[in-house]
Amino acid sequence: MMEKKTIKDRLKQAFLFYALSAMTAAVMFVCFMQSSSVKEVMDLEGWVFFAASCLSHASQVMLPPFLVSALLIWLRLSRTAIIVQAVLTALTLILIDLDSQVYGIYRFHINGFVLSMVFGEGASQIFTFDTQLYVKETLRLLGVFGALTCLCAYAARIVYRRRGKAYTLPVALTFAGCTLFAHLWHIYASFNQHQSVTKSAMLLPYYFPTTANGLMFDLGMVPPESYQNMAGSRQSSDVSYPLHPLDTVSPQSLPNIVVIAVDSWNRRALTSECMPNVYKYATENQWFTNHLSSSNGTRSSIFGLFFGLSCYYWESFEPSHIQPLLIDRLLQLGYHCQAYPSATLLEPPFAKVVFGNVKGLNVSTPGDNTFDRDSKITEMFIADMKKRDKTKPFFSFVFYDLPHSFELSKEQNVPFKPAWDYADYTRLNNDLDPTPFWNLYRNCCYQDDKMIGRVLKAIDDEGMADNTIVVLTGDHSQEFNENHRNYWGHNSNFSIHQTGVPLVCHFPGQSAARHNYRTTHYDLVPTLMHDYLGVRNPVGDYSMGKLLNDSTPRLWHIVGSNLNYAFIIGGDTILEKKAEGALEVYDASMKPVIDFRMPVKEFDQAVKELNRFFKK
Fold first, then answer.
1. Taking a C-beta distance cutoff of 8 angstroms, is the pair 266, 349 a contact?
2. CA–CA distance from 233 to each of 42, 319, 333 (Å)?
């Protein structure tokens, strides 16, 4: 009985140590706010949420040292347990401190990129500190956080000796309550885009509070209009977009602009057999055959297409109601702007993030299935175009979805055979012959090609071709195991088979040409703004792209979002930062690259370029 009581006492004391170290970590997390511009938008709601989140996250971060200690105590290694818990606790606190410094410099938390920079062979190109400084910083970290750890351990021992209690239930309920509150409140606040909540959550390393925008919409909830108006009038605290106010002149003429996007458009489908109308159009206009999207998923790709920036900025732009400069400039010039979406624009919330300032926007399209909706947006666009006042310019975004949904009837699933009746994802494996699945996909593209052909013909029939810019592209691609590594679909890697999409542009007065140099989604905004909309700023003031006629290399092209992103560099090598922070490197065919040497100087410059729209 005595031995069991001793183990119980040790566990209680270890729990107290854990509770005090978690509170210490929570205070350190709160201090992240001091060097952040986010504090400028903080209000009472934000501070309550942030305090709860800090305590919740700290309780989880400091849990592993306690669990290891508890296991050792159970194994009757009590003396070892307290030492191990103290060492792991001190190291965790040191990591939190180092992460705050990294975030202050690069605006992302410690991840594989940072570790490769610090410990890689080229680290001396960036970090040229004197040895004495390294020693001094190491001693500081060990001294400060070693002392804090010892203080927590000592306090836990004294409290338990005097009170004989670990306060397990109230501490556990406090931690659990903060966790539940933080996640539930973040669901509400993110839906209503409360900046103080959504932006403060980003300060905590690898903290992923819950969102449920789709569920909120399904439940019929709508963000309060009064709050949207109030939030829309605020200036963002942490971004400068554009870097300098736009310097504009009135263009001599204003061309109509039609952007046609095909969801999940694999550029191998752009052939005379599969998409004869678009293929013919490509050969007669500007065909960019080496084009990369801004991501491997719709949310990030459309963001990049309309902002000219990486979706890395979404979490800063959305709560601040920052709209694309392209759309704002079009509205300023008197364009009538409209969207024709087959899939809803409510989730992802493109209606707010991309088209928030457009009145009377089509956010969804009626139809029993995707084919019906794709057909409907074709009819809607053509009908609207025919009745437009031809003296006023218009901008239209037509977004097809069939190659993404694979939704065809038996009669529509032609001409390519054999073809699956539907996308049976349960059958996919590395040894599967992709031909029937690929033929189903090609049949979807074939059907959409007929609809796009009608749109292009209607523009020509209305006599608008000479005054209308037409852009045909995809949001991202759809992979069919091209690399024979069992990758299918999208959102699973950043190879060219998921990020490479067609780009065909009709610019009035330009001769047909086929361009093989690299272009990206980020290039569309500066091309339209600079060449047609009277914006005289350097394109770097408002975009990460170049002009489409600029054939100089697109170095360190970034794809993805703030959580999972990658840099695509020479030879299409992929440097991917996983959501959990790990760095993985692949060649163009998704073969892992062993012993990759990080070009840290170039990477440092790339990150600075990526972050340059954040306020210093």
1. no
2. 16, 11, 21
